[in-house]
Specification:
about 140 residues, alpha+beta, 2 domains, 5 strands
Length: about 140
Amino acid sequence: MAISSSASVSMQARVPATVRVSLQKPVSIFNYGKTNLSFNLRHRTPARLTISCAAKQETVEKVSEIVKKQLSLAASQQVTAETKFTDLGADSLDTVEIVMGLEEEFGITMAEERAQKIATVEQAAELIEELVKEKDA
């Protein structure tokens, strides 16, 4: 007989936050300065943790289209929030071109250190929303 319990937590914070959720074993979630973080914890055998993208869907879609354009991918090629640039065949020069395309499209400037840490569409979308928010403030 399987026992199932679930918990759902959503938080918004402007400072780094730590949330600890305990069922059988402690689980720590670190916010690392992100403004939005949501996750679902479903305890089954084994326990599963699902984290969803904090960026808006429209931002993720726009980033996906720019990535497709910069890498000359077919329109039918599926690019999701979890897609890694390297999985699409992007090298470091391609990644620089993607960042430049994103900067132009969203009217922002990404610091080189932060741009180098972008590996997925989701990370790019989250950084863009953060920079747009800072720009508008």
